[in-house]
Write a structure and sequence with these properties.
Helix content of chain B: over 70%
Number of domains of chain A: 2
CATH topology of the largest domain in chain A: D-Maltodextrin-Binding Protein, domain 2
Order of helices and strands of chain A: HEHHEHEHEEEHEHEHEEHHHHHHHH
Shape of chain A: globular
Helix content of chain A: 40-55%
Largest sheet of chain B: none
CATH superfamily of the largest domain in chain A: Periplasmic binding protein-like II
Oligomer: heterodimer
CATH superfamily of the largest domain in chain B: MetI-like
Number of strands of chain B: 0
Number of domains of chain B: 2
Strand content of chain A: 15-25%
Number of helices of chain B: 10
Radius of gyration of chain A: 20 Å
Chain lengths: 354, 266
């Protein structure tokens, strides 16, 4: 296992940033939040900041359309600032704990350990019902399922080691039978340094196709790794003090994503030609990513219950996977889906995905 | 002691390295092209493919992203060099502070940039993080190099001024400052690449939509090796250009600098 020194370093880093999070969370408490919330008149929540989990591409098209189509304005926000993430970005957990953002986008794999370390945050809804993790390989030397990884070299970045180890454990694969190397970029696959890598179904295979490679993948979610992704995170304090504000945001967000899913071209256009215009994104590539992403968002469950919802089964499956990764956490510690439930009870028409 | 041999050599110097440099770059391009064809897969784009990617992306793409990065780098460069030079100047006036100043520099250098980054993001947010990290990286190189200049004055020169009745101020003005200036320009020169690295690392910390660091991340995620190489090369060339420009200004302003830096070693 050649990855151990790097893993250790990333753990130290994680610990350092957690310490920083805790310190700033404490500092944030004293400055006091605004008591805005349960007013009876027309809602006015002022301006808020939202911490995204990556650069502004089609991952957040629903957010863009919610801004552009005025759903957030209708919900009572004078302004919604979408703050981009990045490779070394401030985590959404840090951003909300420090008061920089009201809502952030993260996932149970990041949120659960933070909560167990003392962060006072909850997931209030989730965009991806399935995580986008996949093992990508070339068709000429395919890895179509976990068993096929035996004897192969797989690139896995430090931050994904836990889920990869859990995948091996769930599928009864001896960790020593797979050669794991630190993953940095896809050229490791195309130059033959690795036989496969842990990537994202939304971007990996299609980008490789554009490069002229025939790539295949299997989703970790299809082999026991039930972890949702692109989840919305807020602090416990905000749930208590700014409940209506968070609900208003979720309502605007549902409307934004409904609009995006109804018109993928417009959703891609907002990302490529407006919010991410400085990055010369390839329209077809981003459209493809959006369409693959839609398959993670729109499932029989969300078609019945509404976007961002989680069924009790899904919640339990997430907890089971987290336990496999070494995080023993309860549903009450990690999730608070009551705000989303209230949004749908108050606006039942929103359940129907257009 | 500028002998005829010395003058001849000085005249020859600008010519040969120039020609050798061009030949070296051409050789590199040829080798790169061969390597790109030989390396399996398309992981290593050829120089032609990289150029093509740069042309396809166009001036607007580079201008926007470079402009943003430069706008974060420049204040960082100015802040970092100003503080470092101020400390070096203080040491020149109060030599007893030398140890302390060195320690400040070492401490600044020991702060792991990846660990301090998230803190900076929380304290200052997006664009400022890049400026802060640029200033931080610039500070150390500038301080250490400038402190070398503080000690550059030759004892014999100082004693000569003293022998002729020159006081502390005269020694400072005529000898010490003059001897230190080449190091100051060296420091300013070395700080250019440092500022670029600081700004780029800062841009990897997120919170911003435009900048070379952002463009690099987007190109990597969407698997565009040619664009990634083009962006890296452009930053490298700009950094080199800044380095050479300040070196050139230094030589123009301080004609004796070549003599003191080279001459001292010979």
């Amino acid at each position: 296992m050649t990855h151990s020194p790097r893993t250790r370093r990333s753990r130290v880093l994680a610990a350092a940033s957690l310490a920083a999070t805790a310190a700033l969370a404490l500092a944030g408490c004293s400055s006091g939040g605004s008591p805005a919330g349960t007013s009876s008149g027309p809602a006015d929540f002022g301006a808020i900041n939202v911490q995204l989990s990556w650069l502004k591409n089609t991952e957040f098209s629903g957010e863009y359309l919610a801004v552009d189509n005025g759903y957030f304005t209708d919900a009572g926000f004078s302004d919604v600032t979408l703050t981009a993430g990045g490779s070394g970005s401030t985590s959404a957990i840090t951003a909300v704990s420090s008061g920089q953002a009201l809502i952030g986008i993260s996932g149970p794999l990041q949120v659960a350990p933070a909560i167990l370390e003392g962060a006072e945050v909850k997931i209030v809804g989730t965009s991806y019902q399935k995580n986008p993790f996949d093992i990508i390989s070339l068709a000429e030397d395919p890895i179509p399922d976990p068993k096929a990884m035996v004897g192969k070299t797989i690139g896995v970045s430090d931050s994904n080691i836990l889920i990869f180890d859990a995948l091996l454990a769930t599928n009864d694969i001896d960790p020593d039978s797979v050669n794991v190397v630190p993953f940095s970029d896809t050229s490791q696959l195309t130059s033959g340094q690795v036989d496969g890598y842990l990537g994202y179904t939304t971007s990996g295979p299609y980008a490789l196709e554009l490069q002229g490679y025939d790539a295949i993948e299997f989703l970790l979610a299809d082999y026991g790794m039930s972890i949702v992704a692109e989840s919305y995170v807020v602090t416990d304090e905000a749930i208590a003090d700014q409940r209506e504000e968070i609900k208003a945001y979720l309502k605007g967000l549902i409307q934004g994503w409904q609009a995006a899913l109804a018109d993928p071209e417009a959703a891609t256009d907002a990302a490529v030609n407006d919010y991410g215009k400085d990055q010369n994104y390839n329209f077809e590539q981003q459209l493809n990513a959006f369409n693959v992403q839609a398959t993670l968002q729109v499932t029989p469950d969300t078609e019945e219950n509404g976007l961002f919802t989680m069924t009790p089964d899904l919640i339990q499956a997430n907890l089971d996977t987290l336990a496999l990764c070494g995080y023993d956490i309860t549903a009450e510690q990690l999730f608070d889906l009551s705000l989303l439930d209230e949004v749908y009870e108050e606006n039942p028409e929103l359940r129907q995905i257009q | 002691m500028s002998s005829t041999l010395g003058t001849l050599r000085e005249r020859a110097v600008p010519f040969w390295p120039g020609l050798l440099g061009v030949a070296g770059v051409l050789l590199l391009i040829v080798l790169w092209t061969i390597a790109a064809a030989v390396v399996p897969g398309r992981a290593l784009p050829s120089p032609a493919a990289i150029l093509q990617a740069a042309v396809d992306d166009g001036w607007g793409f580079y201008w926007t992203n470079l402009g943003a990065t430069f706008g974060r780098m420049l204040p960082g460069y100015l802040i970092g060099t100003t503080i470092a030079l101020a400390i070096a100047a203080l040491v020149l006036l109060v030599p007893a502070l030398d140890q302390v100043a060195n320690q400040v520099g070492v401490v600044a250098d020991s702060l792991p940039i990846t660990a301090i980054g998230p803190l900076v993001m929380i304290m200052f947010g997006g664009a400022t993080a890049a400026t802060f990290l640029a200033a931080l990286l610039v500070f150390y190189t500038t301080l250490v190099t400038a402190l070398l200049g503080v000690h550059a004055a030759k004892r014999s020169s100082l004693e000569l001024v003293r022998a002729y009745g020159g006081g502390r101020l005269t020694r400072l003005r005529k000898v010490q400052v003059m001897a230190a200036l080449p190091s100051v320009f060296n420091a300013l020169k070395l700080a250019v690449p440092a500022a670029f690295i600081g700004a780029l690392v800062g841009e990897y910390l997120g919170g911003i939509d435009v900048g070379i660091g952002v463009a690099l991340q987007a190109a990597q995620r969407d698997i565009m090796p040619a664009r990634t190489f083009a962006l890296s090369l452009v930053v490298g060339l700009l950094s080199l250009a800044g380095y050479l420009l300040i070196g050139w200004i230094g030589r123009a302003v301080l004609p004796w600098s070549a003599e003191t830096t080279l001459g001292a070693r010979r």
